[in-house]
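Aim 2 progress update. The chain analyzed this quarter is reproduced below.
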Amino acid sequence: MTSQSVPPIVLNPGDLDPTFGENGVVELLPGTATIRAMVEDKLGGIVYALWVQHEIWLSRVFGDGRPDLGFGQGGVTKWSFVPGLVSAPTQLILQGDGKILLIGAVRSHAVIGPSQIALTRFHSNGSPDLIFGNKILPFPSVGKITTDFPRGCLHNDGRILVAASYSLRDNQNQTIYEEIILHQLQANGDTDLTFGGGRGFIEVRFNGHNSTFESVAVTKEGKILIAGTSDRLIGSSTNKKQAVSRLLSSGATDRTFGVYGCWEAEGVNQSGAMTLHGDNIVVVGFEITGPFKACISQLTADGVYDPEFNGGKRLLIDIPADQPGWFVWCHYVALQGDGKIVAAGYAGDVTQSFLLRVHTNGEVDSGFADEGVRMLEPSSLWGGLLVQKQNQRIVVGLDSANYGEAKLVGVVS
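Predicted structure tokens:
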């Protein structure tokens, strides 16, 4: 009797990667956890942050999704910025020395009320960096305010940029104005008084309009890019637009960028994250009038549409959710080693997470999943997107439609 060889499994771009976790999925802490941030560390593992009953739980998996029980205490580090108050994680950033910066927020209530920007730092093994400690930044304004969760980035020398948007409201809870506050900190977390005219922070409003924040980055020249959404009132209606502004190292607007320091998209849309692609700038987001669509723009270093990307226009992408065109939220972006652009978000009436991939010239990659778009299970995607350096596996952190079921999902690139 002759034995027959088993044909190898053929995996296509966009398939769940069976070498990651269990058939492409790593189930995280069951119960009431939501995943809010993740980052690949220097050894190829993934450190992720869960929001668990008003606390932050930090854990790590190896590159293939196996839990690292040597991280923290038995595989987890539990953290609060202020005991007794709500602590929420929003971003993890890997430093050049392997330490992990946690950006988050602290507030008195899980849902309502303003929050303060908070930061802390951990060693690569999950132990807290007690020298850095907790840094709690002051409220951006006096009076009745609402605030959004912060995000940030690092300068090459380790200085920290962190920003959030907030709105000031009157006694009838109507918005007086909405703007972004951007802080610059020294590498040790102290306020950098060389920034913002000695204050250590600046206010940002795209072209003088109400503005909300999404992403911040630093160019090779040390200039600061800040991305978000501008909102100009037209009668009683709003007119939202993706926007990017460039700042000098002092915090002053760089008027040589875009139009007097700012790029704004045409149409009515909201911004997601931004990343640097060489000297170019990639911005993702979504259209919010007519059929909802994901959108990707690539700008030159000067803040104009890159003519080599989609003919110098924004790329609009249909997402095949349960009700196509009804709702699309495209927030995350990452680059593969070959320069292809991966974006992620969720869409539909019953929200379903998705991935999409685009060639460097702005063409949707039809060889990825179903004509360039991979629909995942019913879920929302708040935990981030990354492309692992060694094997180029795409990983997202999502929360299942069954509340409290947080997951890492690995997809073949």
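The chain has no helices and 29 strands. The longest strand covers residues 175-185. These observations will guide the mutagenesis experiments scheduled for the next reporting period.
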